[in-house]
Every structure is written in structure tokens, then in C-alpha cells.
Queue: 2 jobs
Job 1
Amino acid sequence: MFSLLISLLFSSIALSYAFSHDYVIQDDARHHVFWMHRFLDPALFPNDLIADYFQTVAPLGYVWLYKISAWVQIDPITLNKLLPLGLGLMMTAYCFGVCMELWPVPLAAFASTVLLNEWVWAEDNLISATPRAFVYPIFLGFLYYFMRRSLWPCLFMILLQGLFYPQYALIIIVFLLLNLIPNPKTFLQWGREVSPFFTHNPYLETAKLCGIGITLACSILLIFKLTSSGFGPVGTLQEAQQMIEFTDIGRFPFFDKNPWCFWLSKKNSGLLSAYNSTVSCRI
């Protein structure tokens, strides 16, 4: 309960800014949401290539969420401002559940939810209510049901991940593959206690869940890969390296001649990008 109150506190601050003026809109929503007014008026943005592009690349689940809201005459921008409230509550609830599965101490779980909310609400991802905002609650829900070995809820979360942010299915696949590697000590103990051919063997239950989950996630990625956007193939690495947009003076700085900066500390490419403010790009 207290964890949810913390989430409500943070979301109320965000909502107060979001609804402070009719023309306030989150930066990323200006790209991913504006075209959804077509659901209210199909004649909007005629021959607009930018609107057409963002419409074709939007995940299916994300599109249908806004389309259903448009059927009941909810403005897309209004929905975009309200979604972070629900996503934050869902994220907080699953975070608390995951922590309780790892270490069943309510105070520790509460502290974890406070830290998570403090970090998430200070960033742009959740508050944007764009497809990447759905990663937090859905992935935490997947972890929660996986820890409880709940097959169908776990598969449902994988499906939701594919509908709202299919790229993150790669992370789920890697996670499930790692869980297929048995702990030798535990595996030998199971072998002494139960026959490996019995369905009650914990490892076989985990392997079954992982196998079905990997199959589902791979199917989602395959469908995502085969779906054509109508805007041609993605540019090659050589083409991207020649584009000013990906340099330090471009909109999306990615490449860097300094290997330390590129691989470790640069915001968009480094492994330690979350700490790029404290890790120097110069050696």
C-alpha cells in the first residue's frame, strides 16, 4: 500500500505539470502520438510522410490502445498524459512482488520501489507513455511470474512485450536461455531426490517454461522482422557513420572515435551509459 502511495505521489507531480496548460506535451509524445488524432479525424495530416512513418513503426498493441480510446472519444494527448499514472502503479506493484520473491522482507521491497520510482520519474521513459514506457511494468511482471513458475501469466507478459515493445523480447530470450543452465549442485540434489523423468522435477518445469517462452519470443521477433514499414530498409553501418545526425553535434550522438567513450561511457552506445555523467569520455 505504501509503495503504491509513493508511486501516486510521483505521478501526481508529473500530472500537475502535464495538465498545467492545454499545449503542454512530452517531447517524445510529439513524435509518437500526434498522428493518432487520425483515429478521431481520418482526414488529418494528408500526404504527411512523417506522420505516415510513425504510424507504420508503432507497435500493434500501442496502436490499438490509442485506437480503442479514440472509439470512446478520448483525445490521444489526454490519454498520453494519463497513462504514466497506471503504468507507474503497475510497475510498482510488480517491483514489490519481485523483491518479495527474492527476499521476503516488506521493508526491503518498499525501499526498492521507492528507489525505482525516484529513478524512473526523473527520466523521460515512463512519463513519455511511448512504447518504451511499457517496458518497466511488463518486464517486471514477466520476472514476477517467472519466479513463481506461472506459465500462462508469464507467456501473457511475453506476448504483451511483443505487442508494445518487441525489441525487448531479445532481453527476455537471453534471460530464458541463461535460466536453462542448471546449477550443478542443485541439479545433483534433485537427481537424488526425484527421478529426472518425473514432471515434478523443478529443473524440468523451468526448462519447459523457458522453452515455450523462447519459442513465443522468437515468433514475435520473426513477425516484427517480416513486417514491412513501407519505407525501405534500414541504412547500413557505413551509411550511418557518414551521417551528421549520429555525431556529437547531431540530434542522436552515437559514434565516437574514442573507444573508451564509445564502448563504455557514451550515452547511446556505452555499457555504462547510465553513469555517463560520472565517467569521463577522455583518457
Note: The chain has two domains: 2-226, 237-275.
Job 2
Amino acid sequence: MKRKWSLSAAYLFYPAVIIILLVCVLAAAGCRVKNRIKIDVSPGLLAARTADFDELLAIINQYEKISDLKSSGMKATLTLGKWESGSQEEYRSAPGYILLRQPSSLHIVIQNPVIYKTAIFEAVSDGDEFSAWLRDVNRIYKGRNSAKELVSDDRPDGIPLRPDHLYKAIIPEGIDPTEPGLRISFEESADKITKYYIISVYREGPPPLIHIARKIWIERSQLVISRVQSYDANGRLTGDIAYSEMTPVDGIPLPAKIDIDRPEDGYSLTLEFTKGSWGVNSGLHDDSFVLPLREGAETVVLREK
């Protein structure tokens, strides 16, 4: 009885025959079919440590131990403009300092890179309210951190930067697994440099949907946060924060560099901190978070576009 071949079987059979014949031809011709290549394995891959979910949660939530935080040796580099716009504005790196206090207070000063310790920008923020002073126009702008787009008559294109963005970048938000409507997933990932644990936080939306809120990347050779991504209710990436050179200060890992990318707001900001400039729980008082009065400064209330 003759065997009948189906069309699907033929499609599977013929490529296999061709591969076998090709290997035989190459071998007969003295060609090497494969070659073993030595590669250098990154120390980060070799040093990857393990942790369970509770240990990872403790790594994320350890920043709740911070009552206040300050750095006197900061350098800021700002870039304005969305990628799709085709052009961006890069500003010269400038020194400054920053103060933070739980749960939401921030005071940042950016100084002239040429004239020593002369402030060119200063902002304070507490909760949803912030005030920012610009030296070049001698105006104090007041607005809300939660506003999507803030504009004024003199700045119709808007002011994208929010002090609250900086606060959440420097002091990562914790996770309460018992919070109603919260869902958490746990996975592993790796690249050629190191391995990661990724904690993803989801929130309930209109049934039956849930939406991604945050992804927290934990680098496994040091077991420290290396990246935090945030999303809006529509799944758009609103913030991408990368941390470099984490060093313990009073037992809390703090970065030497933070890269903040805000694609929806159209800006990116790099903050660099000199070694030994971090101070933890030094007892900052209320007057540390008051914007100083400037003679002749005009106050402008920003409105939501």
C-alpha cells in the first residue's frame, strides 16, 4: 500500500531534507558548521542575588524611613521638547541644592553656573501647591502639581516642570499590598549587564479592566531600585526614572545620578549629586520650605489649559 503524503507533511519534510543535505555538503567540503566563541560575562550577571516578594517589598518601602533629605552638592541638566517635535532645547548644567521632607514638601534652588551661588530658579512645593521664582523675569509662578498643562499670558506654551515630579523621583513611592483596588505582579528580566526583578503595580479601572500604574526595577547584584516607570490610566508612559551608583547613606541606598524622562510633559532632567552630599533625617524645619520674598517680584497664578 502506497503511503500518501499530505501537503502539510511535505512542507515540514522538504526543509528538513535541505538542511541535512546542506550540513553534509559543508562537512564534506571541510567547512566548520559551528564555532565556539568565548564571551566575557558581566560581573553584574554573576553577582545576581535572590529575593522573595516580601524582601523586594521591604526594599521598595524602606524610603518611608526617611523623614527628611537634603543634598548641598547637586547639578541639574534640563532638556525641553518632545522627541516627535523634531527639536529640543538643552540648557547648560547648573549647580544647586535640594531639600525634601515627608510626605510631600520640596525646596529646590538652581544657581548661576558662572556667578557663584547666585540663584536663577527657586521653587517650593507642598502637596498639590507649588510656587516657583524665575530670576530672568523676576516673577513668582503659582500652580498645582496635579494639573496636566499649566499656562500663563507670558508663557502660552506652558510650564511642564512640576516640583512633585522631582520629589517622587528622589523618594520612590512605596507599595501597600493591602490597598483596595491594587494588583501586583512579580517577574524577572535580564540584559547583558545584569539581572532584575520587576514589580508591576496595577489599579482597577472600569470593569473588567485594570491598568498599569508603575513598574519598579530592582537590580539584583545590589538589590536596589534601578528604574521606576509610571503610567497614566490610559497606559501611556508618563515618567521613566533611572538611578545610578546607589550608595547607602544611614542604611538607605541613595543615587549619585538620577535621569528623569517625562515624555508626555516634554522634558527630561538629569540630577547629579557629589559624593557625601546627601544628608538623611537632619531635622528640617517648616521655614526650610518657604519661598523667600524677592523685591519687586510679580506673582503670576498659572491656569490649567
Note: Confidence is low (pLDDT under 50) at residues 1-5, 7-13.
